[in-house]
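Researcher: Dear colleague, please comment on this protein.
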Amino acid sequence: MTATDIPEAVRDLLAAISETLTLPDPSSDRMDMVRYESCVSERVHLIQMAVRDILNGTAAHGVQWEADYLRKKAADRPPRYRTPEQYLADLHQLAGGGEAR
């Protein structure tokens, strides 16, 4: 099977699923890990709903709409945790007498 054998709307849905699940790694700070897990859980739930609706035949607006919806919801809820780089930058800022984000 090649990519051209898969209908375009399905390829786009698979790309949207991949994009939705692609998140930066969190810092090792406990709160960042909790926020990361919450973000992952929310995104997995969105994907499960889209896939379930498509498989059940209840995706009233079609596969392309589901792909667009996943992208929109992911963009509406960007990650709210620090990456390792952001965490280190905050530590350096605190060490220099500033305030962390």
